[in-house]
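Submission checklist for the structure archive. All mandatory fields must be present; incomplete records are returned to the submitter.

[x] Identifier: DNA sliding clamp PCNA
[x] Organism: Malassezia psittaci
[x] Residue count: 299
[x] Sequence attached
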Amino acid sequence: MLEAKIEQAVVFKRVLDAIKDLVEHANFDCNEEGLHLQAMDSSHVALSAVQLRSEGFEEYRCDRPMSIGVAITSLTKVMRSAQNNDILNMRKGDNADSLHLVFEGTSSDRIGEFDLKLMDIDTEHLGIPDTEYDAVVKLSSSEFARICRDLANVGESVKITITKEGVTFSTEGEIGDARMTLKQGSGSAARLDDEDDGGLDDDDADKPSKKRRTDAGSSSAAGGVVPVEIQLEKAVALTFSVQYLVNFTKAAPLSSAVTLHMADKVPLLVEFAFENGHVRYYLAPKLAEVRYEASDTDR
């Protein structure tokens, strides 16, 4: 039996928004530690990994490990029925073939109930080897989202160069070229613009959601400034598909900061970490044949 309660449905909505353009269907693996999801995109270029620790739930119970196979698009459609500040309850019996979701309004007696049909998804956990990265840079997630969107208007690929002085994002396209540099120690506002907040529906636009606390994403939309922090073993420069990077920025509403981990000839790790979980993306560099091999032990 799985029973999980999230104080604000917006947290789970934002998690789904972060992966829905990359993952068609996947298993939520549940155990006493929380919910975990790992899935490749259809091209086997990007890997998405989600963790929601049990501490981030208002209530959490998982009697035994189980996998809940869902169509991400279908689950996203169901979650659109929830207001951002609704209380979300999820329940699945040991032998149930559906996931029971209940949305409880906090300002009214409204209760919505849905039973989502589950899928039998036969997938192996993908091996993610331990990697020592040459360069790690932490920056504002909203600034990262803005840079990726702006460069996507110019070219199809983005070269990320990290040195001790800063991080540079550059691209070339038919209309010209563009380059944006963030210097070590410089800061950007952590607040997300409305257009960055992928977890909000149109009918929630009048709600002060950015000022509300979110359990799993408590650092989301926080005020203040996020300074650029660089840890460098050696300078590194790699090129990636800008469209994938734009898709990754859908996780920006979950965290005020994003961390990029880079090393030669290995996938880029883009991490949005929050108090009780994370969303991670692994992206193969362009012009490199980097694929993940299945493993029975790795998650």
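[x] Structure attached
Curator remark: The two ends are 22 Å apart (CA to CA). The chain has a mean pLDDT of 87.
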